[in-house]
């Protein structure tokens, strides 16, 4: 874990801590959706919000990164999130 100072902005490189955080976040998101599964349409709405946030995050990271590998990784994530988001939006429209 090290701090880099570039253009008066501080960036924190968490390394493996970031991977652990993303793993815990994925578990939390699936469990929180599962808790609301008994309520009509609530889990679909929550899924749309989470997948839209992931999509926005990926687009922002592609725009801010100059590293080709980072951009390709976020493009791959977009390829996975887009069908998930669109099918969830269709389900939300029928479930509303």
UniProtKB/TrEMBL annotation:
Membrane protein topology class: Multi-pass membrane protein
Root EC class: transferase
Entry GO CC: endoplasmic reticulum membrane
Cofactor: Mg(2+)
A single MF term (Gene Ontology): metal ion binding
Catalyzed reaction equations: a di-trans,poly-cis-dolichyl phosphate + UDP-N-acetyl-alpha-D-glucosamine = an N-acetyl-alpha-D-glucosaminyl-diphospho-di-trans,poly-cis-dolichol + UMP
Protein name, as recorded: UDP-N-acetylglucosamine--dolichyl-phosphate N-acetylglucosaminephosphotransferase
Species this protein is from: Eleusine coracana subsp. coracana
Gene that encodes the chain: ga28911
